[in-house]
Amino acid sequence: MEKIKIAISSWGNIGNAISLVHKEAAKLADCDMELVGIIRRNPKDNVLDGIAVAGDVHKLPVKPDVILCTAPSHCVMEDVEKYLKLSISTVDCFDNHKEIVKYREHLDVIAKKHKAVSIIGSGWDPGFDSIQRSLLGLVVQGGETITTFGPGRSMGHTTVVKSIHNGIKEAVSLTLPGAKPGLQRREVYIEKTPALEAEAVRESITRDILAHDYFKNDDSHVFFVDSIFSHDTRRHGGIITREDANAKAQVNLVGDNSIMTATAMYNCARAAGRAKESGDFGCRTLVEIPPIDFIKGDSTAERLSRIKY
What we know:
309 residues; alpha/beta; Rossmann fold; Dihydrodipicolinate Reductase, domain 2; eight-stranded mixed beta sheet; four-stranded mixed beta sheet; 32% helix
């Protein structure tokens, strides 16, 4: 099988993390993907770390098979739709859980029409965590699968906070375990700037954050601080648990938030490339993809041997 040609769309924390994941993968002799470009709205250079950079996919020297769309959730669907209509498959890390089913149905029509594959909600949550929520019920009949998130930095929530007011330059939203399993508490730290000096401005920002869909259902608190340095972190994770009278299954995940998401997207690009090659077009979530499609290897036997089946 030829290497799957991938590109990164949008260059933020996740885009940069994907490039780091690929660097490590490319050191191996059996690397099955090739990073052929980075798409940025306002490219400063034509090349970044040896990779072609362009403001438009048409300007890349090589057409990608799959584009990893890393823009924030509130605007990433614009990119996804654009690439699917060019018959280029996509992987995104859209993280608004309530909207995923709606967008999946919408993108499925576009992807099938243009003979492409769209993988939506790829990351550690949603994504890996979603898979665990489905799998734990395989061995634990009763109970309910519960995820207790944190402590750690939520990239999606942090992005939302920064979009609330132009005066917010540095901020971080932390997710912490709540009062009981399955609940979370959110602490938002916003760095003070001259634009935020007025008490009325701070009160308005606080109200807007607490009323936002990302925060209104959680125990959320907003703090204005001189520096977010002591509060910020790249770490995140959670404990996924399901228990009944006969068994208890638990998965504990902790690590670098950006790298975990980037790794999931990178491996999903492999699944997207394989699905398109086989003519299996459309949009799907990670739960709908056979896990073996995330694994390197040309044959089923080779892939099974990698996981020591």
